[in-house]
Design a protein that fits this description.
328 residues; mainly alpha; acyltransferase; Acyl_transf_3_dom
């Protein structure tokens, strides 16, 4: 394999993904978050990005992973780093989140598990993504270590299998968020492919195909939001069109922006901790009977800026760097 560099504004794109994510959790699902009506513009706006948000995050992870992929001679080192990056914050931050939910039910969602051990085995709050992403990293690392997706032929077979799993796999228990891992795997592999094989597909053709996929996916998704078509879940062809088409289109359309780059540089800390800060701001403003517009804006800012400050403070001690933001 060769050493690659990316001619894209990837950090800026991560910043956009963070903003979409925090905005979604500020609005929340029915019965939680801002508790706006189903017909609210806030819910419509966040629902419109439902099939793009997490695929975009995962696509970017695949892009970056492909710059320094797993190799057979350092597979152990790769997994140790991923456990430190994903595992320790998952154990610590999800426990803090769980204990806060127990002390303030409804502050960060409606469902609080009865037993703490279940948050480490089954999907819990937004931490399901860490479980799913670790499964994805593990699978792709093993494929790379065996040199099975190094060339286009093997990669195409892996992508076909990933798409099939996305459309068909749905377990009842959903241990370690395996359902979500199957849904997101094609998007991760797409990121790997865009980095690894970008010289094989002309940029104009790639962007054109992505734009058409996105346009078709968004049209169908909007039709479902307006009630003309049934709801499309994450494991649907429409979700693949929106997620994959949207990721590639945004990758090429994303401008260089200091604001988005600043947010993107702290994307992991924001993902881990945004819910706590956004919920705190939202609860205070609700008690003050503030309007929805102010609640949304202030909670969004709190969900972005709070984790950035926490990340700076966590850097001061080795244990807090690892436990709270997954840094060595």
């Amino acid at each position: 394999m060769h050493k690659y560099t990316l001619p894209y504004n990837v950090v800026d794109l991560r910043g956009l993904a963070c903003i979409l994510l925090v905005a979604y959790h500020v609005v929340g699902v029915p019965g939680a978050g801002m508790q706006v009506a189903d017909g609210s513009i806030y819910r419509y706006a966040t629902d419109s990005f439902e099939l793009i948000r997490m695929p975009l995050f995962t696509f970017v992870s695949g892009l970056v992973y492909a710059l320094n992929p797993a190799r057979g001679d350092r597979l152990r080192t790769f997994f140790v780093k991923k456990l430190r990056r994903l595992g320790f914050p998952f154990l610590v931050v999800s426990a803090i989140f769980f204990l806060l939910q127990k002390s303030a039910p409804g502050a960060n969602g409606t469902h609080v598990p009865d037993s703490m051990w279940t948050i480490y085995v089954f999907p819990y709050a937004h931490f399901w993504y860490l479980q799913a992403l670790f499964l994805i990293f593990s699978l792709v690392a093993l494929l790379d270590a065996a040199r099975l997706i190094e060339r286009m032929g093997g990669y195409a077979v892996a992508m076909a299998g990933a798409v099939a799993a996305c459309l068909t796999v749905r377990t009842e228990s959903n241990i370690l968020s395996v359902n979500e891992a199957c849904f997101l795997l094609p998007h991760f592999l797409l990121g790997v492919g865009v980095t690894r094989f970008r010289d094989l597909v002309p940029r104009r053709a790639l962007v054109g195909m992505a734009g058409m996929a996105l346009a078709l996916g968004v049209t169908l998704h909007q039709a479902s939001l307006w009630g003309f078509l049934p709801h499309f879940g994450w494991n649907s062809g429409v979700a693949l069109l929106c997620g994959m088409g949207g990721a590639v289109t945004l990758l090429h359309a994303m401008p260089s922006s200091r604001f988005f780059r600043t947010v993107g540089a702290s994307s992991y800390a924001i993902y881990l901790h945004h819910a706590l800060f956004a919920a705190a701001a939202r609860m205070v403003l609700h008690r003050m009977h503030t309007g929805d517009g102010m609640i949304f804006c202030v909670s969004l800012i709190a969900g972005l800026c709070g984790p950035m400050v926490l990340e700076m403070l966590a850097q001061m001690r080795p244990w807090s760097r690892v436990a709270l933001v997954g840094k060595a």
